[in-house]
């Protein structure tokens, strides 16, 4: 059962009835549901992908929550709180989806705070300026949407359903980010400078969110065969850039890629060379804020322990009391 | 059989959440969450799943309390209705064109 | 692969919900008189400062579900603050942001209790428990204010603070009767907060000029006391005895905490006078 399973039913390997059923469902673009039989590799790949995604939402709260207390207007403060709160919600939807595959939230959280789990390395970049709230919304949430819209049709039912909910909420995130930048670009020289500086810092990391180039992406082919991934990294990255260029023009902001140009032949925007060494550095945990992000998550978890225990103890006492009353 | 995801090892148990989006509609499963007890579970559900006025009523059920049909017996469990087309109005074609039927 | 979304707009599969948007701020037909504006500042500043404090919990709560819950409370409160400050500003032609970001400490009118730091979760819950019970009694009565704008703001706010009251009550019960540690922390928090309760119900002279418009704080005390009594009894908590803090928030004499809070809240806005965000 360790051989690579492809949905290609003409494979000559003898397979079991349930495996055949699984392959048929994938082939028919149907959905796999929690209690269906599934290959162990499929389950593991999903738990990895979904939990990493959930962790990213949770760690992703931090660079933005930094600015909640300093948001420059009450309206922006309210929007930012609602946005960061949404990210907590996204984490929760996704942990639930992973939980249907037998992973517990406690275990996933332990792995995260022990530094054993991955999350999107984009959140290891700092947010020193208010304009970063704009860039995160426009570029980071924007890239996330490109990645995630196809996942709404992921073959695993609970994952796809969580993604539908998340994508709806994400469109608010991207728009509010765009608006922050637009407001800055229409403001004072200092504000414009703030916006440009921020986009300069976030543009390349956002492009790297789509993952390494296709010829260097080990898990992609299998994930695409299983339809837990629908498009290649490069394909999605290209789409994203095509979308950004006209938006940047509306903002009056310069995308920091001198080689960016329109290719008449392909009708696409060709981009310059991505510096993957930085990506691998950040991915390896050497991003500017890795340690800080994990420490903060760990602190919140550790400091909350007595509260979680208190509520659990209270629940036990209450149900013991109810049982006593029923018995007497 | 219990719902996947429920684990006795967790400090707060898992709850399944159902939301009625409007009067006249059924409660529909929307996802799950953790809570120490039913009182907080229903409040967490309100906070998490109805932030954008998605619901007028919320149910929470301990994931452990849900019994599912056995998926391995899926074929046998849901085979019976197949072929019993006479349960569907569209089976009766001779009355076509007759009003109010 | 039967992918049909490759040509479609990336947003194509997830339509943005078309919804009718409610009014963001509750606005009335009239301009506030100076006295009404001052009163609106009292209430608006309380909500603003409390919201600012709760906002700092988001991403630091004891459990993710609680990040969301505290976020909802903070969002309700900032909504109340915006409507109240907007209304207060109509008297002097200032915006909600002028009032939030460009006043200095002595011009704030917040109560000392909302200025008390978040502390541990028990302190935040104790503060929520006291303030949301007070706000519930306040807004219940303010719904009948002769001032239409205040009445409208109160009518919306009362439903929201009713939920905050419930949220904090649930946690007071759990912390007080959970583990030994949580009980100890709950008792400490309550006794740390209690000196600031008295100020809430003091009648500042301004109240005399707002008969029928404002709610006289002292009249809320009996209802407040009888609302919290059964919760404290169930939680087996006693009302702490001890000193009564001198207060003075309504006349601009604040705790040490407020200056730090304002410095953080206002820092960016003040670095860019005249900018819009
Ligand atoms: Fe998200
Ligand atoms: Fe987002």
From TrEMBL, chain B:
<dbReference type="GO" id="GO:0097266">
    <property type="term" value="F:phenylacetyl-CoA 1,2-epoxidase activity"/>
</dbReference>
<dbReference type="Pfam" id="PF06243">
    <property type="entry name" value="PaaB"/>
</dbReference>
<keyword id="KW-0560">Oxidoreductase</keyword>
<dbReference type="InterPro" id="IPR009359">
    <property type="entry name" value="PaaB"/>
</dbReference>
<protein>
    <submittedName>
        <fullName>1,2-phenylacetyl-CoA epoxidase subunit B</fullName>
        <ecNumber>1.14.13.149</ecNumber>
    </submittedName>
</protein>
<dbReference type="InterPro" id="IPR038693">
    <property type="entry name" value="PaaB_sf"/>
</dbReference>
């Amino acid at each position: 059962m360790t051989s690579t399973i492809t949905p290609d039913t003409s494979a000559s390997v003898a397979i079991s009835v349930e495996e055949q059923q699984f392959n048929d469902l994938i082939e028919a673009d149907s959905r796999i549901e929690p209690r269906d039989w599934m290959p162990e590799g499929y389950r593991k790949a999903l738990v990895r992908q979904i939990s990493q995604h959930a962790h990213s939402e949770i760690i992703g709260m931090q660079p933005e929550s930094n600015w909640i207390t300093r948001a420059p207007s009450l309206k922006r403060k309210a929007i930012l709180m609602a946005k960061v709160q949404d990210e907590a919600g996204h984490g929760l939807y996704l942990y639930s989806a992973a939980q249907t595959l037998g992973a517990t939230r406690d275990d996933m959280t332990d792995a995260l705070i022990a530094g054993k789990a991955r999350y999107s390395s984009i959140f290891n970049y700092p947010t020193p300026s208010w304009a970063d709230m704009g860039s995160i919304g426009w570029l980071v949430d924007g890239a996330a949407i490109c990645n995630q819209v196809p996942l709404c049709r992921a073959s695993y039912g609970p994952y796809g359903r969580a993604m539908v909910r998340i994508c709806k909420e994400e469109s608010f995130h991207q728009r509010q980010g765009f608006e922050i930048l637009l407001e800055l670009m229409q403001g004072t020289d200092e504000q414009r400078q703030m916006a440009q500086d921020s986009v300069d810092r976030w543009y390349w990391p956002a492009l790297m969110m789509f993952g390494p180039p296709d010829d260097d992406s080990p898990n992609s082919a299998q994930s695409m065969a299983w339809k837990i991934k629908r498009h290649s990294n490069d394909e999605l990255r290209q789409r994203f850039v095509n979308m950004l260029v006209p938006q940047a023009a509306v903002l009056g902001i310069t995308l920091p890629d001198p080689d960016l140009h329109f290719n008449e032949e392909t009708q696409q925007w060709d981009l310059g060379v991505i510096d993957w060494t930085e990506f691998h550095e950040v991915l390896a945990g050497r991003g500017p804020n890795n340690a800080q992000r994990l420490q903060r998550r760990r602190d919140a978890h550790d400091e909350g322990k007595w509260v979680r225990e208190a509520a659990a103890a209270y629940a036990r006492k209450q149900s013991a009391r109810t049982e006593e009353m029923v018995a007497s | 059989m219990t719902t996947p995801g429920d684990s006795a090892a967790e400090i707060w148990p898992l709850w399944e959440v159902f939301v009625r989006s409007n009067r006249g509609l059924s409660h529909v499963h929307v996802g799950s969450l953790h809570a120490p007890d039913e009182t907080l579970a229903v409040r967490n559900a309100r906070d998490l799943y109805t932030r954008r006025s998605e619901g007028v009523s919320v149910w929470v059920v301990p994931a452990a309390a849900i019994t599912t049909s056995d998926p391995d017996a899926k074929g046998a469990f849901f085979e019976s209705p197949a072929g019993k087309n006479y349960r569907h109005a569209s089976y009766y074609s001779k009355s076509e064109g007759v009003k109010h039927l | 692969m039967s992918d049909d979304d490759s040509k479609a707009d990336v947003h194509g599969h997830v339509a943005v919900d078309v919804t009718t948007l409610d009014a963001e701020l509750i606005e009335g037909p009239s301009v506030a008189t100076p006295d009404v504006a001052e009163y609106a500042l009292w209430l608006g500043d309380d909500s603003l400062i409390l919201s600012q404090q709760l906002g700092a919990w988001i991403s630091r709560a004891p459990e993710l579900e609680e990040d969301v819950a505290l976020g909802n409370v903070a969002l309700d409160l900032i909504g109340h603050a915006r409507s109240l400050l907007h209304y207060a500003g109509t008297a002097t032609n200032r915006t909600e942001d002028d009032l939030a970001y460009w006043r200095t400490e002595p011009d704030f009118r917040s109560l000392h209790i909302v200025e008390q730091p978040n502390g541990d979760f028990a302190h935040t819950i104790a503060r929520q428990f006291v303030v949301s019970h007070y706000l519930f009694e306040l807004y219940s009565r303010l719904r009948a204010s002769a001032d239409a704008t205040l009445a409208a703001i109160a009518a919306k706010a009362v439903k929201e603070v009713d939920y905050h009251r419930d949220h904090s009550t649930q946690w007071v019960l759990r912390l007080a009767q959970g583990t030994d540690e949580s009980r100890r922390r709950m008792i400490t928090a309550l006794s740390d907060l209690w000196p600031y309760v008295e100020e809430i119900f003091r009648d500042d002279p301004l109240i005399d000029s707002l008969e029928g418009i404002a709610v006289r704080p002292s009249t809320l005390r009996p209802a407040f006391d009888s609302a919290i009594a059964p919760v404290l009894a169930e939680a087996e908590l006693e009302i702490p005895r001890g000193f009564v803090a001198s207060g003075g928030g309504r006349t601009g004499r604040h705790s040490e905490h407020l200056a730090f809070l304002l410095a953080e809240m206002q820092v960016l806005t003040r670095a860019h006078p005249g900018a819009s965000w």
